[in-house]
Amino acid sequence: MKAAWGLALMLCLAATAAQAGPPYATDDPEPTDFHHWEIYSFSAGTKTPGQFDATAGVDLNYGALPDVQLTATIPVDLPGGARAQFGDLELGVKYRVLRREAAGVQLAVFPRVILPTANRRSGPGKVALLLPLWGQKDFGAWTLFGGGGWTLNLGDGNRNYWLQGIALTRTVSERVTLGAEIVHFGPDAAAARSYTAANFGAVIKLWGPFALLMSGGPGLAHARNGGTWNAYAALATNF
Question: Three-state SS across 158-221?
Fold first, then answer.
């Protein structure tokens, strides 16, 4: 289903002190540190009545310049329990346009292009372009981040749409950060409906450069079409 595929794609999109971004669908404006890598080996799933769509893969992020992150997401789709197949390749550049460290405020643009490398039955079969703006405010152990953007969604029967998200996280110990978010995206096809979901997440620092990221939650609006439940898990490596 197109809405379920769209949510799975959002969950695949993106280690900082605030631990914003993954495991949440809502992204953050903080790029990967200069000359450092962030690698997420992830799996994500969306449950609709009578069907479970899953995606796994690798999300590669590199700090190419100060305030600039290059991103490539390489997914493998498992639609409805069918045979695994290569998904749509995603490429992006995150550019932090504002940073006020004393005020704990950041702002970034993160344009991404989604290339139709998947089997036509798994993806929309056309190039898609996401143009979001993400902001963040840190205050003590708390971090509030969110934003959204417009998606150019080419193809017969497809519709351009807006997506929005807001998330709040809290660092509860040296190794554990907890959080929650609400995400919403508009209908991406002529026959589709808008979709809203809530996710609850955790980031657990393991040893060395490794961390475990998890999130999941229910659909809140039009859940039978977009997903009654969704989940995300990843092993993060930062070096």
Answer: ECCEEEEEEEEEEECCCCEEEEEEEEEECCCECCCCCEEEEEEEEEEECCCCEEEEEEEEEEEE
**Per-residue tens of pLDDT for the chain, all 239 residues:** 444 444 444 444 433 333 358 999 999 999 999 999 999 999 999 998 888 888 999 999 999 999 999 999 999 987 666 677 888 999 999 999 999 999 999 999 999 999 988 765 555 578 999 999 999 999 999 999 999 999 999 888 899 999 999 999 999 999 999 999 999 999 998 888 999 999 999 999 999 999 999 999 999 998 888 889 999 999 999 99
Burial of 169 (0-12, 13-18, 19+ CB in 10 A): buried
pTM of the model: 0.87
> What are the Cα distances from residue 35, in Å, to 32, 67, 69, 138?
8, 11, 10, 24
CA dist 142 and 63 (Å) reads 25
Give the CA distances from residue 132 to residues 50, 80, 111, 157, 165, in Å, rounded to whole numbers and listed in that order.
33, 29, 6, 23, 11
